[in-house]
Amino acid sequence: MNPTPLKLEIAAAAAALIIEEGLEYGPAKHRAVKQMGLPARSELPGNDEVEDAVHEYIAIFCADTQPGELQALRELALTWMERMASFRPYLGGAVWHGTATRLSDIYIQLFCDDSKSAEIALIDHQVDYEPRTVTGFTGEKVEALSLSSFCSGLKEPVGVHLMVYDHDDLRGALRPDGKGRKPRGDLADVQKLLISPLESSS
Questions:
Q1: Partners of 109 in the β-ladder
Q2: By C-alpha distance, which of 120, 110, 109 is closest to 87?
Q3: CA distance 108 to 95
Q4: Predicted TM-score (pTM) of this structure
Q5: Which of 51, 91, 137, 183 is the most buried (most CB within 10 A)?
Q6: Is 182 found in the same domain as 106?
Q7: Range of the domain at 125
């Protein structure tokens, strides 16, 4: 079923907020509804519609800067994936799917035999981090270890979030998404993206 014109309008407004302010999809959709003066209970576009609108926005307004910013974020993501390689790291979100800009954070999922082992590794390396509880891709609450890491390509700090899952969650994590794409990529996948950025995460 095709989205209604109003949903597409909301998606376009949300895309602008995602790119210009670094908002996540959910908050961006709700803020777009508010900005447009629509009822709070208005039917929202799906994430796929918003992602399509983000691609359009980037193509129109950020085509000259976004590819370099995305490359810098992927390089930083790879650095952290290499540091946490023993915890089966997978990159997800906008940095994986190719829609990230300098305002985007990096989201790396770790699949650990022992949920505390990743936290201990950060402590051992004297990394300052903040533990938080967030909603994971399974819909359940998971621990996120959030830190700030300097990105040399952007010359500024970037938020890095290490989401800690059980090893058993890995099987469900690799099911194709609604567009038939890999929803996240491992170390080898991210290395390939850095060599051939246009291959994306399809």
A1: 90, 163
A2: 110
A3: 10
A4: 0.90
A5: 91
A6: yes
A7: 66-199
